[in-house]
Design a protein that fits this description.
Elements (H helix, E strand, L loop, with lengths): L2 H11 L4 E2 L2 H4 L15 E3 L4 H13 L4 E4 L16 E4 L6 E5 L4 E4 L5 H9 L3 E2 L12 H7 L6 H4 L6 E7 L5 E5 L11 H5 L8 E8 L1 E2 L3 E9 L2 H14 L4 E6 H7 L13 E9 L1 H16 L6 E5 L2 H12 L1 H4 L6 E8 L5 H15 L2 E7 L4 E8 L4 H20 L18 H4 L2 H14 L15
Helix pairs in contact: 1-3, 8-13, 13-14
């Protein structure tokens, strides 16, 4: 990048808020995929005005710009694959407003999701989306990817709570979308357009979210199963009768790698488990729990049904669940992490297929995730230094995606497309849909400077 551009960027954000040092650039070259693409510079703007000025410069020059939150994404969405400038949004980290009367909050994109939830809980309010990385992922990244989490089975995902946005467009213009009200149908729904757009259409600088009252009671259960198929089939039965706020699934391999974090001793023949919670006010939770226990009592072939009574037991269960993905590297040095979704009734079909896929290709493949909404994380473990294993893993990945589409599912529930799934997009989207999406990208970003190379194959 030319020294002239670097100097102009320093003028915008301040000399101390721009770096080109190789060792510092390295910190912004990777994300949750483990892939590395170093940028040419990293800017740390303090506000919307500075971001707008950067985009005006980038549009006029032009040069690539990649917005970045915590870098926890799993599909390469924050990777600067074309070089250019990374805009790190860490300084835009304020909760600007909590309107208790109208149950609305306004936050900047660098706010940590878990921190927002903790702050709201003190006021009796609740922001339900809870991705596994909530202790360090940011609200801006959650909106850009339309993050989900365990609570989605009852409460929905990020898009269900975003009322409006402030966005800097690729040419530097600033727009406001949506409204603070529950209803609003003035013009096109630009808010939804930006949610899940993976930073390719604009840089989100403010987020207005709706809130709900914080549930006052909750009960947590661990259901141990003697086969993957039993667990997968039980999910559909539970959801036909009950409405849990979380219903998580782990297969035997996922259990094995986090067994030391679980608060209970599990029978050796535990092949799968379900982590289930019901919430609400105390009377409704008591009714829900009684009905659930009565139903589970009819399932005499379950290995066990345990209730976590103490806070430390509940915390340990969730620590184990949220540790599955990082613990996977005890199996192999690398992984392909997919977050496919199928209709809940087809989860048994998917579970059976994944097991056969692992056997057919001689791979370690395990599954866990949000069984309550059909969002299953399929992890293909491999050593990238083994070319034959890599080839088998790539074949298995394509076969998985093809099967998911046949089952009426989708390639991604919450991780997005980024660069890792771009080649497979035509499996799900027809040519006309892709053409329309490319046209939207071209309209917003005619110079293709904002997060180039993401989502679309062969961009």
């Amino acid at each position: 990048m030319k020294r002239e551009i670097i100097n102009k960027l320093k003028d915008i954000v301040g000399k101390e808020q721009l770096t080109t040092a190789p060792e510092e650039l390295l910190c912004y070259s990777y994300d949750g995929t483990g892939r590395e693409y170093p940028p040419e510079a990293v800017a740390f703007p303090a506000n919307t005005k500075e971001i707008s000025a950067i985009m005006q410069l980038a549009h006029a020059t032009p040069f690539p710009v990649v917005p970045r939150g915590a870098g926890s994404g799993m599909t390469g969405g924050a990777l600067p694959i074309a070089g250019g400038v990374v805009i790190a949004l860490t300084r835009l980290n304020r909760i600007l407003e909590i309107d208790e009367a109208n149950q609305v909050a306004v936050v900047e994109p660098g706010v940590i999701t878990g921190d927002l939830r903790k702050t709201l809980k003190k006021r009796g309010l609740y922001y339900p989306p809870d991705p596994a990385s909530l202790k360090f992922c940011t609200m801006g990244g959650n909106v850009a990817e339309c993050a989900g989490g365990p609570s989605a089975v009852k409460y929905g995902v990020t898009r269900d709570y975003v009322l409006g946005l402030e966005v800097v467009l690729p040419d530097g213009r600033i727009i406001q979308t949506g409204a603070r009200t529950a209803k609003g149908v003035v013009g096109y729904d630009l808010t939804r357009l930006f949610i899940g757009s993976e930073g390719t259409l604009g840089i989100i600088t403010k987020i207005t979210v709706r809130l709900i009252p914080h549930p006052s009671a909750k009960k947590t259960y661990l259901i141990l199963c003697q086969s993957i198929m039993q667990a997968a089939s039980l999910v559909a039965e539970i959801l036909a009768r009950h409405r849990p706020c979380t219903l998580e699934y782990m297969d035997r391999t996922a259990i094995r790698i986090v067994r030391d974090k679980l608060p209970f001793s599990l029978p050796k023949n535990t092949e799968a488990l379900l982590l289930l919670e019901v919430d609400g006010d105390a009377p409704s939770v008591a009714i829900q729990a009684a009905a659930l226990q009565e139903f589970l009592a009819t399932k005499g072939d379950l290995l066990s049904v345990m209730q976590a009574e103490k806070d430390d037991e509940i915390d340990a269960l969730w620590t184990a669940r949220r540790s599955v993905s990082p613990a996977a590297f005890t199996l192999k040095p690398h992984k392909i992490s997919e977050d496919v979704v199928v209709p809940r009734s087809r989860i048994p079909d998917l579970a059976f297929f994944v097991e056969s896929l692992a056997t057919e290709h001689g791979l370690t493949i395990f599954t866990f995730g949000h069984a309550g909404d059909g969002n299953i994380h399929v992890n293909i473990m491999l050593d990238k230094n083994d070319a034959r294993e890599v080839a088998r893993a790539e074949i298995a990945t394509k076969a998985l995606f093809e099967k998911v589409i046949k089952l009426g599912g989708t390639l991604s529930g919450e991780h997005g497309i980024g660069i890792t799934k771009a080649a497979y997009l035509p499996l799900e989207l027809d040519a006309a849909s892709l053409e329309v999406m490319r046209g939207i990208k071209k309209y917003f970003d005619p110079n293709n400077i904002l997060n180039p190379g993401k989502i679309f194959p062969n961009q």
